[in-house]
Task: inverse folding
């Protein structure tokens, strides 16, 4: 689904770029609670990983002299995103699949892992089921790498796929590994909100970059009303200047619609909460207004925003060259995840590794666009190398048959309760959780609402124990959803507890009862573990001091 590109300081478009600038940009974006070692390795190694993808066959867009083209993106000082049109993710998957097949790597398609096994304090294996036949599979292994993506489906409105149910986060947590930074969830300001079937699908920042404006139901351009003090000098204070910026005038300041993602998302939410929203609970994003400025506006929009034009035409029957779009914030990414060692990507559980969105550390309190694809390339490779080394150096651990039998029994439990006979189907519980997380642990948070969410999660957990499914085990989405529920509840609880614990506002985490950033909270990460009594435990893990040479880089780039 990734569109924009992979961040890597190749310096193909602007020769001033280098790993130091990328490192400093990433730390600033993460508000300095990132794992600085990961930020350093990421900035240094991303260019090699992009070149490697190219050597394996990825066809990137080109500069006129034939090098990999790079584009501008929020928070990156120089053009840095290697891309393939607006379908970079697809090209990465195609390339990596081709390569792995040629390497002889065995792939178990459509197989969902349900449980990790441990023995003597380290990984011993995993159990999953193949969705096609519904049969269980037991994997004996010395090392496991989690790469299961994010948790967006814990929220009602998300740009994420149906698979983003926090499986890797929950598997690691229940196996005894630590999670960190779970309070930091990124909400992208513009997702589709109507019709319901497409709610949450991303509407690219490019619409606002081309001159699109945000309006409330009274037709008022509300973004001018709340420009944060620290951005005031860089932001246009009138519509004329904002328009000139979008048309490439280097002397003009950017319009307030292009303020940071967290601020725009909160401003939209305020309009909706105060009763000035659009009919379906968002605001209007209007690009069609530029016909007042440009003679050939319709052709211009279709040429500059072809995917958006087709997306709205096909999915919502709306012609964006003539009609404003209805948009609202959409849950996009989780910065939190499995706590890993910066070099090896091993979690706090020996033999268990994590990479990509389900791991934590690189992005701190907020991720820059493009830094996720580079994250998973750099740390996917590192996790692979170190897991292979771990497997070579350690003997296999035995899987306790009782643990395996228990995993199978629990997985089949929903079939013993058919919906209607005292229990209920899984979708209602899932939907109630999503709506509750959206309302109570969403973009703007406060203590009492999050305490309510915790009680709600507990109630839903009880109901989950009674959830029943009908049908058989072959491709049964109801069964799959029933099995996902436990993971969604685990990650929802971790997000909520960590968000209650962080009594300040930083990056993706905004609390209306603590709206300021507190330097004291910049000294540690919040870590979540399963206690011996099975309850969730929170700890504050101090962030180690940055080495002098990295501090110098940060200072020089400030
Ligand atoms: C619309 C959209 C646009 C984006 N654009 C960009 C962009 O331009 N640049 C950028 O850097 N980032 C972008 N992102 C973010 C980025 O795409 C993701 O963070 C990234 O792809 C995550 O990669 P991953 O390898 O961690 O997980 P994924 O690539 O999502 O892979 C996770 C895999 O794990 C599998 N899985 C899940 N649970 C289980 C289980 N229990 N058992 C077995 N398998 C399981 C899933 O089926 C899936 O195949 C975008 C995200 C979205 C949603």
Result:
């Amino acid at each position: 689904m990734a569109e924009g590109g992979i961040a890597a300081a190749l310096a193909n478009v602007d020769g001033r770029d280098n790993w130091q600038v990328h490192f400093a940009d990433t730390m600033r974006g993460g508000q300095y609670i990132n794992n600085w070692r990961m930020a350093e390795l990421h900035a240094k190694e991303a260019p090699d990983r992009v070149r490697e993808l190219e050597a394996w066959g990825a066809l990137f867009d080109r500069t006129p002299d034939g090098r990999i083209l790079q584009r501008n993106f929020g928070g990156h000082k120089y053009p840095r995103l290697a891309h393939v049109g607006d379908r970079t993710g697809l090209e990465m998957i195609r390339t990596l699949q081709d390569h792995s097949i040629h390497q002889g790597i065995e792939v178990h398609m459509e197989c969902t892992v349900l449980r990790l096994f441990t023995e003597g304090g380290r990984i011993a294996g995993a159990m999953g089921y193949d969705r096609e036949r519904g049969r269980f599979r037991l994997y004996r292994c010395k090392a496991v790498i989690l790469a299961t993506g994010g948790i967006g489906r814990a929220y009602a409105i998300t740009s994420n796929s149906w698979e983003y149910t926090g499986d890797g986060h929950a598997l690691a947590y229940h196996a005894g590994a630590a999670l960190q930074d779970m309070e930091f969830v990124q909400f992208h300001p513009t997702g589709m909100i109507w019709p319901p079937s497409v709610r949450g699908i991303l509407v690219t920042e490019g619409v606002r970059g081309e001159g699109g404006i945000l309006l409330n139901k009274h037709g008022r351009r509300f973004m001018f009303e709340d420009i944060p003090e620290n951005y005031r000098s860089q932001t246009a204070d009138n519509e004329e200047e904002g328009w000139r910026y979008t048309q490439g005038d280097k002397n003009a300041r950017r319009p307030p619609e292009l303020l940071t993602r967290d601020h725009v998302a909160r401003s939209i939410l305020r309009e909706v909460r105060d009763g000035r929203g659009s009919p379906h609970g968002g605001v209007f994003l209007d690009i069609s207004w530029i016909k007042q400025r440009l003679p050939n506006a319709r052709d211009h929009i279709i040429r500059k925003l072809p995917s958006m034009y087709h997306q709205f035409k096909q999915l919502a029957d709306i012609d964006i060259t003539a009609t404003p779009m209805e948009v609202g914030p959409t849950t996009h990414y989780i910065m939190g995840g499995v706590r890993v060692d910066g070099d090896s990507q091993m979690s706090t559980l020996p033999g268990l590794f994590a990479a990509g969105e389900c791991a934590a550390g690189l992005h701190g309190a907020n991720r820059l666009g493009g830094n996720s694809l580079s994250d998973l390339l750099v740390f996917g490779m590192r996790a692979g190398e170190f897991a292979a080394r771990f497997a070579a150096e350690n003997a296999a651990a035995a899987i306790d048959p009782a643990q395996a039998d228990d995993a199978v029994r629990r997985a089949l439990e929903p079939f013993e309760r058919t919906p209607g006979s005292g229990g209920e189907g899984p979708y209602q519980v899932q939907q109630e959780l999503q709506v509750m997380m959206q309302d109570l642990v969403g973009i703007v948070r406060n203590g009492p609402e999050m305490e309510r969410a915790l009680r709600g999660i507990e109630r839903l957990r009880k109901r989950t124990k009674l959830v029943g499914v009908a049908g058989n085990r072959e491709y049964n989405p109801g069964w799959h959803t029933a099995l996902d529920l436990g993971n969604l509840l685990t990650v929802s609880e971790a997000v909520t507890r960590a968000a209650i614990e962080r009594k300040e506002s930083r990056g993706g985490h905004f609390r209306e009862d603590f709206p300021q950033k507190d330097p004291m909270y910049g000294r540690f990460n919040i870590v979540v573990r399963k206690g011996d009594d099975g309850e969730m435990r929170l700890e504050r893990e101090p962030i180690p001091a940055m080495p002098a040479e990295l501090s110098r880089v940060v200072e020089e780039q400030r």
User: Anything to note?
Assistant: The chain has a mean pLDDT of 94. The chain has 15 helices and 16 strands. The two ends are 33 Å apart (CA to CA). The longest helix spans residues 477-501.
